[in-house]
Fold:
Amino acid sequence: MNIVILSKGPGNISTKRLVEEARKRGHDVRIINYTNCEARIEQSNPVVIYEGEVIKGVDAIIPRIASSYTRYGSAIVRQFEMQGVFTTASSIAIVRSRDKLRATQLLARAGIGIPKTVFSRGRLTTEEIDRLVEELGGPPVVIKLARGTHGRGVVLAETRKAARSVLQGFYLMEEEGTNILLQEYIEEAAGADIRAYVVGSQVIASMKRQSINLEEEFRSNIHQGGEGAAVKLTDEEEKVAIKAARAMGLNICGVDMMRSERGPLVLEVNSSPGSAIEDVTGRNVAEKVIEYVEHNAKARRRKDRVGA
Ligand SMILES: Nc1ncnc2c1ncn2[C@@H]1O[C@H](COP(=O)(O)OP(=O)(O)O)[C@@H](O)[C@H]1O
Ligand SMILES: [Mg+2]
Structure:
């Protein structure tokens, strides 16, 4: 098969792993930096041009779109979709997953547990902020930028006073169109969250990420110094992960959840999960992704031939 990985970092380890496994399985694989792609849009002929070359004959794409390029990257994914090319993540699902507000709404609608969350217009008065904090059961509360990633833009406000000043600071950014969420703090998770790597209708690897020192840092992101360890999920956690993937419309994704007193609560669903989980769990995740592409891209082509 002709597989294209859309990635702006050819040196990125997750991208390299996919290339390695695709080659091992006999595929032609190419990395295309989507930030250097153009989309030519004309009647009945959606074309992607990469550094002056028209990209043709692609069987499948694996998008690895950076969060700072969500809009542009998803537009390039959409251009491939319009050509009928199989993608491991649809453009719409990528966009959904990048907005914590939108994602939280979709997950809640599907009946998936999420931390209690409130969202309101910005520029609230002190009294209004206090009321929101109360609605969440009082401080501490977690305040999040809807488009943050790697733990950046996620703040723990331990007092009302802190909640007010953090929100006021964030409101400056809201003017640029970034939504802000307030969430109950899941204390019993004790600075840990679970990453479940979903491929199709299965969890193929799972790890627990723990913040290095809860006194210093409540976020468990690897980018914030968090440490990963393999973990076995409960049946309920597995079910929730698969349900969350489905609710987001992502066949390949990383579902992040917290272990709470009332069961697993999903924080977010990542549309380009990294390969760090391979080192932690010893599972060959990249191979599973390529296998998924083989089964599904082919099935689709067969269907196309019979005119379905
Ligand atoms: N409601 C919460 N209660 C406790 N910890 C949280 C909560 N929300 C987020 N965290 C911690 O902060 C980290 C980053 O939050 P997350 O929503 O996943 O944002 P990001 O997209 O930046 O990773 C999580 O991995 C978790 O450790
Ligand atoms: Mg996260």
Summary: Residues 221, 256, 267-268 surround magnesium ion (ligand 2) (CB under 6 Å).
